[in-house]
Amino acid sequence: MRLLHRQYDKKVKAYNLLFEIRMEEYLSIAEQILKSNAFQRRRVKSSSTVYSLLKEDLKTGCIIPPIVLALSKNTEGIFDSKLIDNHPEKLKSLIIDHQKNLIILDGLQRTYTIRDLFNSLRSSKDETTLEKISKFPIRIEVYVGIDKLGILYRMLTLNSGQTPMSLRHQIEILYSDYLEDDLDGIKLLLEADDKTPQKEGEYKFKDIIEGFNSYIDRDYLTIDRNDILENIKTLEKLSKENQETDLFKEFLFTYNDLVSELNKKSNNWECGEELDLSGQPFGKNAQKIFTKSQVMTGLGSAIGKLVDFKSINEIKDIDKLLPEITVDNTEDTFNNLIIKLDKIRTVAKKIGNDQRMFFHFLFRELFNKKGEAYLNFSKAIDEAYLTYQSKTQ
Q1: Structure confidence by residue, pLDDT tens digits, 193-227
Q2: Strand 137-146 vs strand 14-22: parallel, antiparallel, or unpaired?
């Protein structure tokens, strides 16, 4: 490994170090990253032809764009500007010693391709080609002393990768500290896990994040790349203004309590085959319904609007209201919910967005103390559907 250049990035307040490294040496480091970092275990299944071509090109000495890594500011003892400025010869050992703490910002699929190539050559016992490519130099950039917001910002602005990391995966990394916290038994499933929630208290991490973002933005629609750049600024502001509370946890716990309450009041309801639906039901039971992102974003945006309208003061106020929710007739109410969602599916141009809109109005009606459906889940469904129709027809 040889240091070619070092420069301070004023935007993310971190050093960028450009190294030249033998492909075999990089693969050794990359194996540690893939083994240690839960966010980087999943690979893209598509574009296999592109990466097959790249694998063949690497054998001929093809030059690939630099792979970009980050060494977090939170890594103990890592942020030492004097070392970077005055002892550049020690930077190699700095990277090697902390390789388990590295994150791949750009170049994950290229990394998998390099690993595939080495495995293929070892299996075929092509020692000649293996020796040649092992010594072939590639370039890596390493951001040293960068915080999580800086990591996400750089992910969003890097475009050199052939297959960029998914938007939701990037957001997970921004909020990843919550995975280390005690969440009162709630289990958050990562995109890399590729699992579906099965039990009460299990949610996809990305869906909860989208729900929380809907609370921040007061908007039930999902976020896009530009929204995240604005979200970074919002989170920086929230971190300064909310030193004594954690809004993300408040949203998560409130949503979990709501799901628990509605599951209980569903009285083990299950969608029967007697309903005349256009396709599969939105959810076959209450648990399946309330683990979907459309419900989470609907609740998030609804709570945000209720706070703005001063119907409630904060997220935690919803928790106090949950035991008072009534359901007129369990079977009829949940069947009605499924029928209304099915009708939305048959007329919506963008089904997911229309479903989010419906749940937004459902929860606004349910928790608006000035409304006729206040704390009555059955009435809130009908009122929400009428409002949905008036907005879309």
Answers
A1: 778 898 999 999 889 988 988 888 888 987 665 55
A2: antiparallel
How far apart, in whole angstroms, are the C-alpha atoms of residue 140 and residue 106? 10
45 φ, ψ (degrees, to nearest 5): -85, -20
DSSP string, 59-86: HTT---PPEEEEEETTSTT---HHHHHH
Residue 122 scores a pLDDT above 70: yes
Residues 318, 258: contact at Cβ < 8 Å? Answer: yes
Q: Left (φ > 0), alpha (ψ -120 to 50) or beta: where does 25 sit?
A: alpha
Calpha distance 347→88 (Å, rounded): 63
* Per-residue model confidence (pLDDT) at position 242: 47
Contact 268, 295 (CB under 8 A): no
For 269-301, what is each residue's pLDDT tens digit?
999 888 999 999 999 999 999 999 999 999 999
For tokens 């029928």, the residue is: 339
Q: List phi, psi (to 5°) of 169.
A: -65, -40
Start-to-end CA distance of the chain, whole Å, equals 64
The CB-side HSE value for 57 (13 A sphere, CA atoms) comes to 11
- 241: pLDDT strictly greater than 50: no
On whether the CB atoms of residues 121 and 175 are closer than 8 A, the answer is no
Break the chain into its structural domains and give their ranges.
2-165, 177-392
Q: Rounded to 5 degrees, what are φ and ψ at 3?
A: -75, 125
User: What is the mean predicted confidence (pLDDT) over 167-190?
Assistant: 74
CA distance linking residue 387 with residue 139, whole number of Å: 56
Query: Looking at residue 234, what is its pLDDT?
Result: 57
- The pLDDT of residue 307: 93
Reported as type and span, the H/E element at residue 103 is strand 102-106
3-state secondary structure of 21: strand
Query: Which value, to the nearest 10 degrees, does the dihedral of the CA atoms of residues 39, 149, 253, 345 take?
Result: -70
3-state secondary structure of 274: coil
